[in-house]
Amino acid sequence: MKRIIILSSFLPPLALALCGCSSSKSIQSDLANGGFENGELAPWATYLAVQATISSEQAHDGKFSLAEDSGRGSVYQDVKGLQGGVNYTVSAWVYADSGATASAQIAAYDPESNLATFSPVVPPKPAWELVKHTAKVSSVGTLRIHLFRNEGTGKIFWDDVRVSRNQ
Ligand SMILES: [Ca+2]
Q: How far apart are the CA of 77 and the centre of ligand 1, in A?
């Protein structure tokens, strides 16, 4: 029993080493609560008719994820202090309840041009899947990241949202 406890205490640093996160050359932005481990939605806000909650039903990492249910809409956050004219990649993991028909999509809104670009639509499936979307940042240095739940039924979950500068 004691041996299992010691072993598990070494797992987080090992997992970090295996994923290569610390050695990655990409520059992480200061997106907040990207893993939803605060246990609350803030500073993410909701857009349109989606019902957004923090859930412990599913988690890609940690204990919590973002659950989106009911209507079409998104949860969004402004990521500031990015470098204008540079491409950034938004990545997030998504999971759908078994039998769900609602698809998922990442959008990046540029406040300068007032335009949003979208990732491909991700059909629902009950397994964690990595979604990526690359967008160019304008001179204001801000991207508004949206995690969309499109029309359909069932709950979809998001976790481990990241924004990194492309090389
Ligand atoms: Ca999490």
A: 16
